[in-house]
Every structure is written in structure tokens, then in C-alpha cells.
Design brief:
By secondary structure, this protein is α/β, with parallel strands linked by helices. The strands form 5 sheets. Strands 3, 4, 5, 10, 11 and 12 form a 6-stranded parallel beta sheet that branches. It has a 4-stranded antiparallel beta sheet with strand order 6-7-8-9. Bound molecules: adenosine monophosphate and zinc ion. Adenosine monophosphate binds next to helix 1 and strand 10. Adenosine monophosphate (AMP) binds next to helix 1 and strand 10.
Length: 457
């Protein structure tokens, strides 16, 4: 059964054929660590994790590399404006280095909470300055660069097919930009190395061209090649990377090696906030995983929500949708928990699950098959084993979960007793007041056939 992947380069589904049998090299553009990740960013990492898990289910040994952008990502994609790290430093009063370390850690913690498998290699841009300088020097020797007052730029007119990934309309862009090109020769040209100039920078390095720092795109070209080689299998990122970041990574690589670095380019669609244009860090208002947790949601409820949409369709976030996802995921794991161990996966269902996942990661269909397993004429142990197998791809932590016995503080238990008494004596006002006090203490009353019990709200 072939794994079909959508390739933005060819704009079609293609069967995955690895460069080396049984292996898959996967490069993912990681976070810019100047702020917390928002749940939109995390949707992209969930998609990438699903891809990795499905590759593994298909028997591939995956080498997953993710970079950390801790320098060089400017506020504007047009190579102008401040470096996001230096700006973060000014905002918080911490050094750019401290900020990078802090947000790298919070990002990695988010991944753990979402049950996202850690990449085999974390590649920090600031740890690979020498590779980036060597890359730029090579394409300079090959004649693809020019110097302006503020840096070394890539001359995109030197490439015949620049912009193919995004199907950029180069002539149209040229016509639209006549006036504000600045020192750039073409509107699509981008910085490879920026000079520090008069700016007081915390992150800067010496280079053959002068003191400064690398542009954002060169880090991914240098590090993907360093860790995965001149040709590797799959390069992923969010859909916003198509027109600029990945387009420029490809341009750099073509200039150096005469070919595209990766064979497959799947891209994840954006998460949108209900009613909002888009969710972005720079707009300030964004939802973090922490925000969801504070409102009583399990991070894996968000993972379930992400799985309900195809990664190439836009997903609109709402609290109602998250509620529904949390309920569904809780039901699934409760049902799973009641099933006995000791079975083996049912082959027919395993094939059906894999067929959906292999169809360009159709997770919502695969989830529907998982629910079907619960109702299927299989033994309970077989159901459990089949679902456990599917959860290798879903990552919903089904097997890891056990219902927790909540410790109820004595005072809260006393309130419940008071509420039971009040109800028995038909003092409804007192009963309601006791319920309100219980809820304020963070508990919820659940009426069961055995009587009222307390749950953590
Ligand atoms: P950044 O930290 O801004 O470099 O972005 C990290 C990742 O999140 C990139 O792969 C982006 O494509 C992706 N991304 C940014 N915004 C969203 C969004 N609203 N929904 C999904 N992915 C996003
Ligand atoms: Zn990148």
C-alpha cells in the first residue's frame, strides 16, 4: 500500500518513494523563538508529527530534523525591520540569548504536552553560523549574489525557474514594485547576510563580508544539507512558507547544487480563529496551549481537534469545537480503558486505518474507522490492540491514560453533604448555594445512580 503525499512542488498527490530504501529524511522548519508558540503554529507541528508517525507505521526509519530560528528572522519578510530576537529583547529587558533559550524550552514543553515526538536533531541557527557562511561563500563564487549597503543579497533573476514552488508571477511582481525596490535589483531578491552597521546587536558574527548576521532562509538551507545531505526526502512547513521561505531555500540550494533539496514538499494549512482574520504572533492576540489548559482543556483534546480536519484544509478554531473534541477524545479513551489487554490488531481494520492514513494523512477518516472498531464484531482484546496500533499514528495517548481518583478536600466533601441534606429537606436555595461553593472550589457535582459524586471541574 503506497503512502500518497501531496507535493506542493508538483501540485499533486505522489506515492512516497524514499531515496534510501526503508529510510525517510524529514526536515521541518521550526519556531522563531522570540515569543510563545500559538495554537496555529502548533497545528503545523501536529501535522508534521502525524506525517512522521505515519511514515514510521509504514516501516520507515525516520530521521526528523527541526531547526530553531534564534537569529535573523526580521519582522518583515522583505528583509526590513528589526530582528525578531532583538526586538523581543527590548520588549522584555532580557538578552536575546536568554529569550531564545526561554522560548525554545517553552516550545519543547508544548510539544511534549501534545505528545509530539521530539525530532532526532534540534538544529539551532546560531550553532551553525560557519555552515551558513560557507553556503553563502559558495553561491557567491557561483555568481548568484551581490552586495548592497546593508548586506549580501541573492539575485533571483539569475535563476531560470525562481518561484516555481509558489508559481510566482515574476513579471507581475516586477511591475508592481518599480518604485520601492531600494538597493535590491529584483523585488524577490532576499538577504543572505546582513551587516550590523550602526545597530547595537547582541547577536553578530564576523564573516568574509563584514560583521553581521545571516538571513532567515540560509539557515534552513545550510542545516538541512548538514544533517540530511544534499538530497533528502521530505521538507515540511506551514503554507505561509510556500511563497517566500521555502521558495528562497530552494533558490539557494539550486544555486549551489543545481537541483531542489527535497523530493516532497507537503505544507500544512493554517488554523484560523473564529471571527478573526488570522492568528499571528505579531498581532499580539493569540491563543497558547497554556490558555487552553487554563480553561480546563487537555492538550490532547486540541490534538484530537487537529486530527478531525485534513491538514491541507483550513481549520477554524472555536471553543465549541474544542469542547466537542475533548468530549470525543474522553469517550474514546474511556472506551479503550475498559477493553482488556492481550489481543493482536485485527488485520482488516488495520489495513483500513492505514489506507486512510496513507491517503495523504486522512486523519478524520481514520478516526471514523477507529470509532467503527469499537462497534465491530471483534473480541474486546482485539479491539484494544487495533486501537492501540492506530494510536501510534493518532498520538492521543490512549494506552497511557488511567482514570484518576481525585482527592476531594474535606471542606468540599462537607459542602456536598450539606447539599445532600438540603435537597432531602427540600431547602432548594441552600442546595444551590452549596453547589455554587463546590464549583468555586474547582469541583463539579455529578449525579450518578449511586448518588452524587465530586469530580474535578
Ligand atoms: P514561526 O514561529 O512564525 O516561524 O512559525 C512556526 C510555524 O508555524 C511555521 O511552520 C508556520 O508556517 C506555522 N504557522 C504560523 N501561523 C500559523 C497558523 N495560523 N496556523 C498554522 N500554522 C501556522
Ligand atoms: Zn526553514
Amino acid at each position: 500500500m503506497d503512502l500518497m503525499l501531496y507535493d506542493t512542488w508538483e501540485r499533486r498527490l505522489r506515492p512516497f518513494e524514499p531515496i534510501a530504501a526503508g529510510h525517510a529524511g524529514l526536515y521541518a522548519c521550526g519556531p522563531t523563538v522570540y515569543d510563545y508558540a500559538h495554537i496555529g503554529n502548533l497545528r503545523t507541528y501536529l501535522f508534521e508529527d502525524t506525517l512522521r508517525r505515519v511514515l514510521q507505521l509504514n516501516g520507515y526509519a525516520v530521521r526528523h530534523v527541526m531547526n530553531i530560528t534564534d537569529v535573523g528572522h526580521l519582522i518583515s519578510d522583505a528583509d526590513t525591520g528589526e530582528d525578531k530576537m532583538e526586538k523581543g529583547s527590548r520588549r522584555t529587558g532580557k538578552t536575546a540569548w536568554d529569550i531564545a533559550a526561554f522560548y525554545t524550552e517553552t516550545f519543547q514543553h508544548d510539544l511534549v504536552r501534545l505528545n509530539i515526538l521530539p525530532p532526532m536533531v534540534w538544529a539551532r541557527a546560531t550553532d551553525h553560523i560557519a555552515e551558513q557562511i560557507a553556503f553563502i561563500a559558495d553561491i557567491e563564487r557561483k555568481g548568484y549574489t551581490y552586495r548592497t549597503e546593508d548586506g549580501i543579497y541573492f539575485d533571483t533573476a539569475r535563476l531560470e525557474h525562481y518561484g516555481h514552488l509558489a508559481r510566482l508571477d515574476i513579471e507581475g511582481l516586477r511591475a508592481g514594485h518599480r518604485v520601492d525596490l531600494g538597493a535590491k535589483r529584483n523585488p524577490t531578491d532576499f538577504a543572505l547576510w546582513k551587516f550590523s552597521g550602526d545597530e547595537q546587536r547582541q547577536m553578530e558574527w564576523d564573516s568574509p563580508w563584514g560583521r553581521g548576521f545571516p538571513g532567515w532562509h540560509i539557515e534552513c538551507s545550510a542545516m538541512s544539507e548538514h544533517y540530511l545531505g544534499e538530497r533528502f526526502d521530505i521538507h515540511v512547513g506551514g503554507e505561509d512558507h510556500v511563497p517566500v521561505h521555502h521558495t528562497n531555500e530552494i533558490a539557494q540550494h539550486e544555486a549551489r547544487h543545481g537541483h531542489v533539496p527535497a523530493n516532497y514538499w507537503p505544507h500544512g494549512a493554517f488554523l484560523k480563529l473564529e471571527g478573526a482574520e488570522k492568528m499571528s504572533k505579531s498581532d499580539g492576540g493569540f491563543l497558547r496551549l497554556e490558555t487552553l489548559i487554563e480553561r480546563g482543556y487537555d492538550p490532547l483534546a486540541y490534538r484530537y481537534l487537529a486530527l478531525t480536519a485534513h491538514y491541507r484544509s483550513q481549520l477554524v478554531f472555536s471553543w465549541q469545537a474544542l469542547d466537542a473534541a475533548q468530549t470525543a477524545r474522553n469517550r474514546l479513551r474511556q472506551a479503550f480503558h475498559r477493553l482488556p489487554e492481550g489481543g493482536t490488531p485485527d488485520e482488516t481494520y488495520r489495513d483500513r486505518l492505514l489506507a486512510e492514513l496513507n491517503q495523504d494523512l486522512n486523519t478524520s477518516k481514520a478516526l471514523a474507522v477507529a470509532w467503527e472498531v469499537l462497534r465491530a464484531p471483534l473480541t474486546d482484546a482485539t479491539k484494544r490492540a487495533t486501537l492501540a496500533w492506530a494510536d501510534e499514528a493518532f498520538g492521543l495517548g490512549l494506552a497511557a491514560w488511567k482514570p484518576v481518583e481525585v482527592a476531594v478536600p474535606q471542606a468540599v466533601q462537607a459542602l456536598l453533604d450539606e447539599r445532600n441534606r438540603a435537597r432531602a429537606e427540600k431547602r432548594w436555595g441552600d442546595a444551590d448555594a452549596a453547589r455554587a461553593d463546590i464549583e468555586r472550589a474547582g469541583f463539579r457535582i455529578k449525579d450518578t445512580p449511586q448518588g452524587a459524586v465530586l469530580e474535578k471541574a
